[in-house]
Amino acid sequence: MSHQLLKGKKGIIFGALDEKSIAWKTALKCYEEGAQIVLTNAPVALRMGEINKLSELCGNAPVIGADVTNMDDLNELFVKSMEYFGGKVDFILHSIGMSLNVRKGKHYTEMDYDWNARTLDISAMSLHRVLRTAWDLDAVNDWGSVVALTYIAAQRVFPDYNEMADAKALLESVTRSFGFHYGDKKKVRVNTISQSPTRTTAGSGVKGFDGFIDYAEKMSPLGNASAEDCANYIVVMFSDLTRMVTMQNLFHDGGFSFTGVTLPVIEQMGK
Asked: Spelled out in words, what is the top-level CATH class assigned to the domain 10-270?
């Protein structure tokens, strides 16, 4: 059921690849809640994914390719988006992550540093680039909202999450640092949402991911938060109901982040 929480608002959704994507589900929810959106992803992802199908489901939302490591691409994305909207945007979703060392099977202790630099650029510093572009163009309305997706491996060790843990820690740091300046200047709020492990195309590429899912389910009083649940939370963060929330890392994980142990985990260990 729609509450029209985003009626009249306009936003850019980064990272929708296919129906498993949190960004995909968020785009649908934003549209359902009354928003106009622009969809964007890297050119190679646009070729691999099904984003044109999503566009149709969202009222034929424009699809604009952009490499998030290229400032010219980002500048063009924001300029074209503002032309389409006839003004500034109200929200941005950063749902971007890629690890070359994970893809290539490199252990954390043996990482390729050139690949690592690429991972950090795409997965974390891309948020700085997006915010910098929006800042330079004055592209976000006062009291706008930016949300980036992260994971608790930024705070705790999950050995097979590899270099992505470092990338998420950097992402959260950019959120705080740029969030301070953007809030001070334009009242734009910037937050991360630390989501439960979710069966997205990207997440499923992490070694031992099924074990992550099962363990988190047993460790969370409410169970794992689904991609649909996360989309609902993001909509609330984009809405005017959260105008005073910024620079936060918000756990959306069914209680996993603050649970020491549960009976199901103890029972599993005893088998």
From this structure: alpha beta
Amino acid identity of 16?
A: A
- pLDDT tens sequence across 82-112: 999 999 999 999 999 999 999 999 999 999 9
pTM of the entire structure?
Answer: 0.95
Cα angle, residue 64 at apex, residues 40 and 117 outer, rounded to 5°: 50
What residue spans define the domains of the chain? 10-270
Instruction: Please confirm, yes or no, whether 151 is among the known catalytic residues.
Output: yes
Own/partner long-range contacts of 210-215 (Cβ < 8 Å, ≥24 apart)? 212/158, 215/265
Sheet holding 36-40, edge to edge: 36-40, 10-14, 89-94, 140-150, 189-195, 249-252
Residue 233 a catalytic site member: no
Exactly one of 31, 161, 182, 233 is catalytic; which is it?
A: 161
The 10s digit of each residue's pLDDT in 162-221 is 999 999 999 999 999 999 999 999 999 999 999 999 987 665 556 667 787 898 999 999
